[in-house]
Amino acid sequence: MKKDSITIPYDEEKLAALRLYLEQKGQSVEQEMVSAVDALYAKAVPGNVREFLDLRSGMEPKPAEKRKRPRPAAEPEPSPAPLPESRDSF
Q: 67-70: long-range contacts at Cβ-Cβ below 8 A with a sequence spacing of 24 or more?
């Protein structure tokens, strides 16, 4: 699939600190941003659209992305019948 780029403004010093600490963990800002955008994509784009795009690009849809049939609504349980009023004789 063809790649595109996203450019966002961010504080220079914060970005330098972020790069430094992610590098210590063997990670990069770019890797983390791709993960964050993937999570946003999964949250915002409907599953059937994601599945279509995966099929169009030749990828197998992931099991979690496959559409599930909606469960039938459970029928409400009947309310218990009211107890008869007791008449006390005095």
A: none
1 pLDDT band (50/70/90 cuts)? confident
The residue ranges of DSSP E strands in 42-88, in sequence order, are none
DSSP conformation class of 58? T
For residue range 25-64, list pLDDT tens digits in order. 999 999 999 999 999 999 999 999 999 999 988 876 666 5
Q: What is the DSSP letter of 43?
A: H
Contacts of 64 (CB under 8 A, 6+ apart): none
Residue 29 C-alpha from the chain's centroid: 21
Mapping DSSP onto H, E and C, the string for 23-86 reads HHCCCCHHHHHHHHHHHHHHHHCCHHHHHHHHHHCCCCCCHHHCCCCCCCCCCCCCCCCCCCCC
Helix axes 29-44, 12-24, angle to 10 degrees: 100
